[in-house]
Amino acid sequence: MKIKNPQAKGKRFEYLIRDLLIGYGFPSRRTPLSGGIDGWSGDITSPSFPLFIECKNTAKTTFPQWYKQSIS
Question: What is the pTM of this model?
Fold first, then answer.
């Protein structure tokens, strides 16, 4: 029986999104400690746009909770 690791699942998804952005010509990278450093919110950043991207790999959507996380 394989034990699912939510952190590994999240990292894989972040790398997938980063690679998609790079493929479309936006140099991108995962944020250090996945946004755990003050001033570095979100999971992915790019010098091409002034935004952080928060990645969620889930079957259930909780937009209000995600929004609150994005502004804190």
Answer: 0.72
